[in-house]
Amino acid sequence: MSVEFLLTSLVIVVSPGTGALYTIATGLSQGFRASVVAAFGCTLGIVPHMAAAIAGLAAVLHTSAVAFETFKYLGVAYLLYLAWSTLRERGTLTVEDAGERRNPSALRVTGTAVLVNFLNPKLSIFFLAFLPQFVPANAAGPVPRMLELSAVFMVMTFVVFAAYGFFAAAVRDHVVSRPNVLAWMRRTFAAAFVGLGAQLALADR
Question: What is the mean pLDDT of the chain?
Fold first, then answer.
C-alpha cells in the first residue's frame, strides 16, 4: 500500500461532500450513535461505485449521456428532498431536545446515507479514474489489488465520517438548547444540500 494512495485517499475523504454533510447533520440532530450509522451507510453507498469501476461499468456512465443525466438528476432530486426535509423538520434531520428524544430508525438513517452517495454518478467515474492509478502495470491480478485498495478507502471513509459525527454530537446539547442556533443550523444544512444539488446538476461527464 503506497503512501501516495493513503495520502490521496485521506484528502478525498476529509473533503466536504454530501456524505460528510449528512453525517454531521445526523450527529447534530440525533447524536453519536445515529451518526455512526450514517457513516456506515455512506460507506456502503460508495460500494456500488467501486464495484462499477472495478467491473468497468462506470464507463457506461461516462459514454452514455442519457444514463449519466438520468442518474445525475435522481441525485439532484434526492438532495433537494433532503433540503426540504431539513426545513420542514422531518425525518432523520429532525433535532429534538433531551426530553423529546426518540431513537431514530437505524434502517432509515442507513438507507438515506446509502442513497446520498449512491445517487451520485460522479463517484463511479471518479473511482474509474482513481483506482487504476495505484495498480502496478505489471500486476498479475489487477482486480484483487483494486479490491484491496477499495477496502482501505472504505475503512478510511468510515473512520473519518464517524469522527465528524462524534464532534457534531459533542456540540449537540449546545445546539438544541438554543432555538436561534437550531433554526440557523437547519437553514444552513438545507442551503448546503441545495448547493450540492446545484453543483451536481451542473456537473458534466
Answer: 76
Cβ-proximal residues to 176 (8 Å cutoff; 6+ apart), any chain? 95, 96, 97, 98, 182
- Cα–Cα distance measured from residue 8 to residue 182, given in angstroms and rounded to the nearest whole number: 35
- Rounded CA gap, 1 and 141, in Å? 15
Cell 476529509 belongs to residue: 14
Top-ranked range on mean pLDDT: pick from 23-27, 71-75, 157-161, 177-181: 157-161
**Closest of 85, 89, 96, 83 to residue 28, by C-alpha:** 96
For 171, the grid coordinates are 456540540
Q: Which of 135, 129, 160 has its CA nearest to residue 148?
A: 135
CB atoms within 10 A of CB 129: 12
Candidates 113, 134, 103, 182; CA nearest to 12 is 134
144: exposed, middle or buried (Cβ count in 10 Å: 0-12, 13-18, 19+): exposed
